[in-house]
Design brief:
- It contains 3 helices and 9 strands.
- By secondary structure, the chain is α/β, with parallel strands linked by helices.
- The strands form 3 sheets. It has a 5-stranded mixed beta sheet, covered by helices on one side. It has a two-stranded antiparallel sheet with strand order 1-2.
- The longest helix is centred in the N-terminal third of the chain and has 17 residues.
Length: about 140
C-alpha cells in the first residue's frame, strides 16, 4: 500500500490505489526472451519433403521421437544420423528401453514403398510396435 506524504496535514494520510506495473513488465519481457531462445531449439532440423494427407491430425506428445527417412534412404533418429543395423540400439538409447513409446516415422515422398516397409520391419524387429506416420495436412477434396 502506498501513502501520500507532504500534503500538509500529517494526521490525514490518503492511500494511493495505483498498481506498479514495472515488475510485471520485467517478468513478461524475460519470459518473452526465454521463449524466443527456446522455440527454435524444439524443432527438428532434418530436411524432408513430406507427402500431404487429409486425415484428422492427432495431438502431438510432449517429447515426440521422430525417425526420418530422407530421399537418399538415410535414417535420422531426432537430429542424429543412424544406420539400419544400429537402429535398435539407437532407439533403446533414446527411449531408455521403453518399447511402448510411439515412434513417429517421417519419410520423404520420393522414398519407395519397399524402403519404408524395411524400416517399419526393423522397428517391429526391435520391439517398437507403436508407429505413427507423419505427413503434411492437406485440404480435403470435395
Amino acid at each position: 500500500m502506498g501513502a501520500r506524504i507532504g500534503s500538509g496535514n500529517d494526521d490525514d494520510l490518503t492511500e494511493t490505489h495505483e498498481i506498479n506495473v514495472t515488475p510485471f513488465i520485467d517478468v513478461v519481457l524475460v519470459l518473452l526472451i526465454i521463449f524466443m531462445v527456446a522455440a527454435p531449439l524444439a524443432t527438428v532440423d532434418v530436411p524432408v519433403d513430406l507427402p500431404a494427407s487429409t486425415a484428422t491430425p492427432t495431438p502431438r506428445p510432449d517429447k515426440p521421437l521422430f525417425l526420418t527417412i530422407q530421399a537418399d534412404n538415410s535414417l535420422s533418429l531426432g537430429d542424429a544420423k543412424t544406420s539400419k543395423e544400429a537402429l535398435g540400439a539407437a532407439l533403446d538409447a533414446a527411449t531408455h528401453g521403453d518399447k511402448t513409446q510411439r515412434v513417429f516415422l517421417r519419410a520423404d515422398k520420393t522414398v519407395d514403398y519397399g524402403a519404408l516397409t524395411e524400416v517399419m520391419n526393423s522397428l517391429r524387429g526391435a520391439g517398437y510396435l507403436k508407429i505413427g506416420l507423419v505427413g503434411l495436412e492437406a485440404a480435403p477434396t470435395p
